[in-house]
Each structure stands twice: as C-alpha cells, then as structure tokens.
Design a protein that fits this description.
By secondary structure, the chain is α/β, with parallel strands linked by helices. Helix 13 (315-322) links the parallel strand 12 (303-308) and strand 13 (332-338).
Length: 634
C-alpha cells in the first residue's frame, strides 16, 4: 500500500526537478492528491490559478498516458512546446498535422514514449481514434475549458457534448474537468454531462484582489485610450475587440500614434500569429489588440492592464479575459469601455442563432453583462456574486465605484414624462429617433405628414440635445419605464412603471449624465479626415426607417425613391458619425476586401477604389466601409 507520505515525496520531487517549484498552493495540492488517488475531479480555479499543473504533474507519476482535451490548436501547441522545453514527453494531434505526422505521433504514443497527449474533442471522439485509444494504458482524461460542454456556459461548443460517452467507453479511467469560469448552473451541467462518479469538487476563490475594475463611457473612447496608454508606454497590456477588422484598425491607429502595438486574430496565418504572440511574451511588443482568439494558456505574468474596447457578451467571458491581467499578483487594471449600442449589436447577432433555446441563454447572459456594466454598487462584489461567491472584505483600491463612493443621481421625472407622453400621443407606433425629433421640434417631412407638429409634445424638449434624450431613453429602458416592441420595428411603448410616472406621481431618479472630459494627450493622435457634421431631414427620415429594421430597398419603395438614393442617405449618415449595423449593408467578405483596397490606396477618391474592386462592388458599399474605418473609434 502506498501511503500519503510516499505520495507527498514523489510529488515534491517531481515538482522541484521538472517544474522548478518548491511548493504547491493548497488547492493544487488537494487536487493533485485526488487525481493520484484516481478519483474523478471537478476543479474551478481562477485564471492564473495554476490548473494545468494539476494534471501535468500527476501525468509524470502515473503509468500510462494522460489524454488532455483542449479546444484550440494554438493552446495545444503552447502547452506542448512548454512541456517539451521542460523535458516532458508531450505531443498533440490535431488538424495542423498531416496524415504521416499523425501516424508518427500515434506510434510514439503506442510505444509508451508520450506522457501527455493533447487532442481536440472532435478528434477524440472519432471512431478510429477511439479504437486507437482502447489499446492504450490511459492514466487520466483531463478536460480543459470544461465549461464548453454546457449549453449554459459562455463558450458552448457542441463538439464537447460527445465527451459524455467517455464514461461508458472507458469506465475504469478517471476524468478530471477544469475550468476558470462556471456558475453553479454550469458546474452542475458539467458534472452531469461528463457523468463524473462521486467527484472530488474543488472551488477556488475567483476574487482577484490585485485587479482594479473600471467601466468607462465609450464616447470619445479612442482619446480616453490614448490618454491612459500614454502614461504606461513601458507596460504590457491586452486590448480586446469583437472583430478581426477592428483589431487591425485599432492596432494600426495605435502604431501611427507611436505605441508599440500589434493585432492578433484568427484571420492571420498561423506563423504570423506565433510571431506576434512571441513578440508580446518577450516584451518586444507592449500592446496586443486581439479578438478572444488570444489569451487562453498565455503564460505572461506581467500584463498590467486588460481593456475591453468592445463589451463581451457575458460575465464569464469578461472574467476570464480580464483575469489575464496581473497574474504576478501586482496591481493591474481591468477596464471596460461601455455603450448600450454594443448590447444592441450583440442582440442582433444572438438572434441569428437558429436555436431558440441558445438565443434565450445568450440573451440572459447579455442582460447580466449589461446590468454589471451599468451597476452603481461595488463591481467586484457583483462580479463574484454572479459566480455565487461572497466578498468578505474589499481590497483597496477595489473598483471605480468604491473609489468614488458616491454615485451622483439627478431627477429626470419631467423629461421622462415628456418622452412617455410623446410616445403615447403618437400611438406608441414610432421608434426612438422619431420621438426625439418630435420632442426637439424637427420639421422632418414625415412628422409634418403625420400631423405630429400639432401635438402638445412637439418641440417641448428643445432645451435638451439629442444625445441627452438618447441617454435618458437608454436609462429608462434599463430601469423598465419603457420597452421596445420588436414586432413593430422597435416602437417605444410605456410600461406599468411608465404609467406610474405619467399618472401617479412616481419620480424618476437616474445617474446624472456627464459630458466626458477631453484631456489633452501627450502625443498627437492621428487625425481622421474632416467629415460633415449635419444631415438633412430627408436623410434623417431614411436613417430612422433603417434603424427600425427596414432594408434600403424597403425604404426606397415606401418613400418612392431610388434605392441608390437611400444608399447615399445611409452613407451620408455614417459619415456624420451615426452608428449603423454594417453587416446589414455589406457582407463580411466584401467588407474585408474593401478594407484591404482602401488601406492599399490610402486617401483616394472613390473611383480608383471602385476600379480596383470591380463591377461587383457599389460606390455605396465603399462609402459605408470607408466611414466605418474612419469613425469606429471616435
């Protein structure tokens, strides 16, 4: 019989001789002990908590091979490269290998020359590969990023569902599931899907006391970013955006403004991604502007800030990505630039999912992300509460809200009554843009045609800017005073709470709107070409109809104008700074091609760009993309 003392001696010897550590963290020690006892394990550990060591070290002590299930090719390669550099026999099998390389690797595994084999879930569950595994002495199945198996998780991957068969196919092999982000619901789903047998369950604290959480308004976001980075030119940081093109644009703009920055996303060739990642790890590049393709498994302890320039879809993703800052325990920043417009964009893409069940989950997660971003109480406390963890004591500093201590609020009752009354008097049949134009006294032809210039609410809101009215409407929507009727092109409707404001004296107190400061940056930011600042009523009408969900062709038919005229209106609106949903106007494939030509030709009239693109592209499409490139970070 092997005693615990013997186990401890073997673990410490391997820890020192192979990994160069002298001690384990208490949670690591308990997890490793359970795995060495061949128990099933579920482990929730924070980003930077050392979860990979929990299965890598036992793999050296167990006879046989440990199979590690990993979702990303890049992550597999990073892990295997690191293990091999430590003298550990590790390998991966994935789609980056050709048939001969796969055969060679499998032969080495069959001969007992490999201790850790990394595979993707879809490869693992292929009948031929399962038959190959059945002939091996398998010590453990380690499921990394185990939240991917749950439909309730933030990164559900259907291919992970096949892992539920491991228990019946390999009944005597222990399974260990690891994740850095899982709500209680997701944890229960992981245990059920993997059919873990009386598992040892470990939950480390997700609190990262060295991180300072902040949420900034996204208005003037690029200038805010430059101001922040200018004081941290020698620090390493990650800036997350949602799209590949956005990563390229922002990295290029930062480079032009004198920052050491590089883009990273799945659209780059594998070798180029490796070079940029290595440059960041070796401090040759200070800033990585990335999509979520970057970061998993990246072992860089001195990342001083993680900035989300675009809001993530859920708190799990935000926690995991922001947690890549300060893994060395030193003070670091986690910053989100927030606008409700990001939530609207996410909602549009969520509703493209054919699964209504998955739509519902994603919309619930997004609502909680928005609630956190718009919160007025401790951000750390509410983030941990999402994962069912109580915050015993707040570190100092904790978050921007705790730092300010008092959130200034203002009485918006009268303005809220104006908006609610205007919606009611127009039959609750019009969108927000239209109502704001009525309140501001616009002479828009559509307003005149409807006779709404004769309403008592016409022009009563002239003392407020359209920006202020949009802010008020956003806050009223968030607080439940109004709702948007998706079945009527997002027409604004009052709710029961709204009726209380109109008829029963309910007060409306909301966070006060502040115009963001525009600090002078020590560096001169790149100046975009000048642009028009106003649009006429006809363009405004087209814009309103587009924002209510109508296509350019539908707008043209209703207004009895040429489609090309409507397209020109929308391009003009974008050029003045209006935020439109670009994928509704230009396909992703066309957008990428147009961007490439625009970058190659530089400042240029439209005709040379059109000539370079060919007859399959319209002038309107070029104007849309050019406007998006110019204004994305204003």
């Amino acid at each position: 019989m092997v005693t615990d003392t013997t186990y401890d001696a073997r673990v410490l010897a391997a820890l020192r001789s192979t990994f160069g550590f002298t001690a384990l963290w208490p949670l690591q020690e308990r997890i490793i002990h359970a795995i060495l006892q061949r128990q099933d394990v579920f482990a929730l550990m924070p980003t930077g908590g050392g979860k990979s060591l929990c299965y890598q070290l036992p793999a050296l002590l167990h006879p046989g091979v440990t199979i590690v299930v990993s979702p990303l090719i890049a992550l597999m390669k990073d892990q295997v490269d690191r293990l091999q550099s430590l003298g550990i026999a590790a390998a991966f099998i994935n789609s980056s290998l050709d048939t001969a390389e796969v055969r060679t690797c499998q032969a080495a595994v069959a001969q007992g020359k490999v201790k850790l084999l990394y595979v993707a879930p879809e490869r693992l569950m292929l009948p031929g590969f399962l038959e190959f595994l059945s002939r091996l002495d398998i010590a453990l199945f380690a499921i990394d990023e185990a939240h991917c198996i749950s439909e309730w998780g933030h990164d559900f991957r259907p291919e992970y569902r096949g892992l539920s068969r491991l228990r019946e196919l390999f009944p005597s092999v222990a399974v260990a599931a690891f994740t850095a982000t899982a709500t209680q619901r997701v944890q229960a789903d992981i245990l059920a899907q993997l059919r873990l047998r009386t598992p040892a369950v470990f939950r480390g604290s997700l609190n990262r006391p060295n991180l300072f959480y902040q949420v900034w308004p996204k208005q003037a976001g690029y200038q805010r970013l430059v101001n922040y980075l200018s004081a941290r030119r020698q620090s390493s940081g990650i800036i997350y955006v949602q799209a590949r093109a956005a990563a390229d644009r922002l990295a290029s703009r930062l480079q032009n403004d004198g920052f050491s920055a590089a883009a990273y996303h799945a659209g780059l060739e594998a070798e180029e991604r490796r070079l940029r990642q290595d440059a960041f790890l070796q401090n040759d590049v200070n800033i990585i502007v990335a999509t979520i393709a970057f970061g998993m498994g990246i072992d860089k302890p001195n990342v001083r800030y993680v900035i989300h320039f675009d809001m993530p879809r859920n708190l799990e993703g935000y926690y995991q990505e922001s947690g890549r800052a300060g893994r060395d325990g030193q003070p670091s920043d986690a910053i989100l630039l927030y606008t409700f417009g990001d939530a609207i964009k996410h909602t549009h893409f969520i509703r493209q999912n054919p699964s209504e069940a998955q739509q519902k989950v994603a919309e619930e997660q997004l609502a909680k992300m928005v609630k956190w971003a718009e919160g007025v109480s401790c951000r750390r406390q509410s983030l941990l509460a999402y994962f069912a963890e109580t915050l015993d004591a707040r570190p100092a500093p904790c978050c921007d809200l705790c730092h300010v201590l008092v959130t200034e609020e203002a009485d918006y009752t009268i303005a809220a009554q104006m908006l609610l009354s205007c919606a009611r008097r127009t039959g609750e049949a019009f969108g927000l843009t239209y109502l704001i134009r009525v309140l501001c006294g616009s002479r828009d032809q559509r307003i005149l045609a409807q006779g709404h210039q004769r309403l008592s609410t016409y022009g009563i809101g002239k003392d407020r800017t359209r920006q202020e009215w949009r802010y008020l409407a956003q806050e009223m929507l968030r607080k439940g005073y109004i709702r948007l009727n998706a079945g009527r092109f997002n027409a604004v409707e009052g709710t029961t709470l709204g009726e209380d404001v109109l008829f029963r004296g309910r007060k409306v107190s909301l966070p006060a709107m502040h115009t963001p400061e525009r600090q002078q940056s020590p560096v001169a930011p790149s100046t975009p070409p000048s642009k028009p600042t106003t649009i006429g009523d006809s363009v405004r009408m087209t814009l309103d109809m587009f924002l209510q969900g109508m296509s350019p062709a539908e707008i043209a038919a209703q207004r009895q104008l040429a489609t090309s005229t409507i397209e020109s209106h929308l391009a003009r609106a974008m050029e003045t700074g209006e935020s439109l949903d670009l994928p509704r106007l230009v396909s992703n494939e066309k957008c990428h091609t147009i961007e490439e030509v625009l970058r190659r030709l530089g400042p240029s009239p439209l005709k040379p760009v059109k000539d370079a693109l060919g007859e399959n592209y319209t002038y309107a499409e070029i104007r849309y993309v050019r406007a998006a490139l110019r204004d994305s970070y204003e």
